[in-house]
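Thread: quick sanity check before group meeting

JM: Hey all, I'm pulling together slides for Thursday and realized we never actually wrote out the predicted structure for the chain we discussed last week. Dropping the sequence here so it's in one place. If anyone has concerns about the input, flag it before I start.
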Amino acid sequence: MKQCIKVWTEDSVAKPHVIVAGAATWSIKIHNGSNEALSQYKMNITSIAPLLEKLAKTSDVYWVLQDPVYEDLLSENRKMITNEKIDAYNEAAVSILNSSTRNSKSNVKMFSVSKLIAQETIMESLDGLHLPESSRETSAMILMNVYCNKILKPVDGSCCQPRPPLTLIQKLAACFFTLSIIGYLIFYIIHRNAHRKNKPCTDLESGEEKKNIINTPVSPLETLLQSFCKLGLIMAYFYMCDRANLFMKENKFYTHSSFFIPIIYILVLGVFYNENTKETKVLNREQTDEWKGWMQLVILIYHISGASTFLPVYMHIRVLVAAYLFQTGYGHFSYFWVKGDFGVHRVCQVLFRLNFLVVVLCIVMDRPYQFYYFVPLVTVWFMIIYVTLALWPQIIQKKANGNCLWHFGLLLKLAFLLLFICFLAYSQGAFEKIFSLWPLSKCFELKGNVYEWWFRWRLDRYVVFHGMLFAFIYLALQKRQVLSEGKGEPLFSNKISNFLLFISVVSFLTYSIWASSCKNKAECNELHPSVSVVQILAFILIRNIPGYARSVYSSFFAWFGKISLELFICQYHIWLAADTRGILVLIPGNPMLNIIVSTFIFVCVAHEISQITNDLAQIIIPKDNSSLLKRLACIAAFFCGLLILSSIQDKSRD
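JM (edit): ok, ran it. Output follows.
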């Protein structure tokens, strides 16, 4: 062995990529387990240790610890090979090889996993010495993972991948958050000292306390530092969960029970916590929050259970994603149509709330913007809605009420929008040319092209338009007092309400039957953009036509609905981990306790980030136009610097 290793250390000889070596049991057997043999073994290991260390600088060198034996099954000529002797030889090898370098850690790795496997499987051995084939296969698999995962870097690999090196942008982000934490601590100490100085003092004559404390409002700078301080700690947790390889990840294995039983649990909880709505209009705020909430919880269960492998569930989840986009079209159209507010402040507020967390994660987790595909999707659709309605002529409800022709003008705008959507949907080349232009390409490319973005956009291409059209029709009917939206009243007359309810239930079930009978995902995805609106509209009518259903909502679901965006984004790294391909394991060996603890932390973090985003939006996006323009100039400069640094990083990687 020494001679073979010595030859490999010579510069002119081709070196192997991986060397797996080990010895002990033959030494024990030949020398009948004598202590002299152990001393000689130590001398031999000591003599080859420098050669192994030298070879380990260019190759992966593994020293295999000897497996335990099942002494009862050993033949007479192997009885001297005891577990006590094997442990002594293993300890000698570990001690000598780990101390072969004086000033640094040894490059020779101990392959101890086979020993751990043997402890579980040696009982299945035929002769008490040699392991069963399944054990050797497991050891070989782990060895291949050790070598291959660091080269292939599979997204779902939870073994043996080295921690990715910090990028320049990540280092700058770490410095920024560290300074924010230090700055906030300084503020806190100063404020605390001031509070102590202003403590109530006792009046010697009356014996009463004089209160000198004046409640001063918290300064924007302190709020800013506090928000970034909390955000910095949260981002550190994100990094530790999904980049630092501190925690294990496990694979998903879908079963019907793992998906449907949790859904039954949350539905029972949602029904239990119900309250009366403040208003009884169609799709009122409480109802839309409730809608977002239960959809988000179902989507979370879908992701953690790996239910995407079951096509009927996949098709129904696609409708839930489409429903989010339907609400985007409905909500933003309603706001612009009723309020007529096309100001920069409104646009910046929406864009900030949608994108703040994702931008921070792109920096901290070193992921492209398109990786969090849903946020680019709703951002682009918001801008399309805004441009469609803000372009001349600006048509709003107040103007249209004076002249009915304006309604036709708005319908004409929507018709042009539909033509534009159809053109992009069926012109992949034009779509890719638009979004491949710099700097758009930096936002929408994934793995070097924009195909993923085109696929995501095309999958729900009509549903935002459907949401806008529904909002227009609903608000027009509401204005003409066609609808009865009083408490407990059906939306229409009894006959019309019953007829529409019947049609809605039939349509809802028909879609579910069709989705459940899908056999080919590609074919079903092709039909999905045109037919998903059927189940969405059916649900809206079933939920809103009966007056009693419109008058109550689930506060449980509504609470989750208010943080649905944060839940959707945070799950990538602190609940699922491995970029959604695996499940984060904070507590190994206890899946139920692990899911309870990780879910509790995940929900708390999402709620806290929602609060931080709201606080920062008030400071960074002020209502005053002159201040807002200055902030926008700073934000533009920030993104320019980010693009430059990103380009430098890309060149260094290439």
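AS: nice. The longest helix spans residues 168-197. The mean pLDDT is 90.
JM: adding both to the slides.
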